Amino acid sequence: MKIRIPFPTTAVILFGAIVLTACTPAQNNQTVDPAPSPSQVQPVVTDAPEDQDQTRRSDVKQISTAITQYVTEPGNALADFGVVPVCNRQKIEIGTGSGNMDLGSFLVPDYLVRIPFDPAKGSDEATGYAICNNQKGETVIWSLHSDATKLNSAK
Q1: Distance from C-alpha of 56 to C-alpha of 61, rounded to nearest angstrom
Q2: Distances from the Cα of 7 to the Cα of 4, 13, 14, 15, 108, angstroms
Q3: Rounded CA separation 11/51 (Å)
Q4: Using 50, 70 and 90 to split pLDDT, how confident is the model at 146?
Q5: Residue 30, C-beta contacts closer than 8 angstroms, at least 6 positions apart
Q6: Contact of 126 with 118, CB cutoff 8 Å
Q7: Can you tell me the distance from the alpha carbon of 37 to that of 15, in angstroms, rounded to the nearest whole number?
Q8: Contact 58, 141 (CB under 8 A)
Q9: How many CB atoms lie within 10 A of CB 68?
Q10: Edge-to-edge strand list for the sheet holding 129-133
Q11: Which of 26-35, 72-81, 111-120, 145-154 has the lowest mean pLDDT?
Q12: Among 15, 30, 35, 98, which residue carries the largest CB count within 10 Å?
């Protein structure tokens, strides 16, 4: 009894070698850098004001959500952050710089990977975002550098 093989054996071997080569990552003795630590992550800066404002909206929401999560935990309170001024009188910038409100020690890493900062003008020391309490006693986060007239978490 003779078994007929529909493809030549060399074609099957060649096909297998091509598939194996295409599916195997190159070995070029380069090491892959691990993911950056949160302190190494920088915002992506774009020239388009609407893109920057979209990032600011996201940052404002993240900070606001993290504060809400923090204060709803038993034993935590907004007063832990220090004196939060009334919005119509003053806003205090969030950041590690002198005179700013450092929320990082309360919110990082449990509620945020890092405190976000303005995509164009912010830094860890002066994030470009401010905090205050409105007339209703709600905590509001503001973007200080937005092209929108009032970009804040109260909307």
Answers
A1: 8
A2: 9, 10, 11, 11, 62
A3: 53
A4: confident
A5: none
A6: no
A7: 43
A8: no
A9: 13
A10: 92-93, 129-133, 139-143
A11: 26-35
A12: 15
Residue 94 corresponds to which amino acid? I
Q: Which residues contact 82 (CB under 8 A, 6 or more apart)?
A: 101
**Cβ atoms 116, 110 nearer than 8 A:** no
Over residues 49-73, the pLDDT tens digits come to: 788 989 999 999 999 999 999 999 9
Distance between terminal CA atoms of the chain?
Answer: 82
The distance between the two most distant Cα atoms of the chain, rounded to a whole number of Å, is 98
The full length of the chain comes to 155
Q: Which residues contact 88 (CB under 8 A, 6 or more apart)?
A: 135
> Tokens 């007929």 belong to which residue?
4
Specify the pTM: 0.68
Residue with token string 């164009």: 120
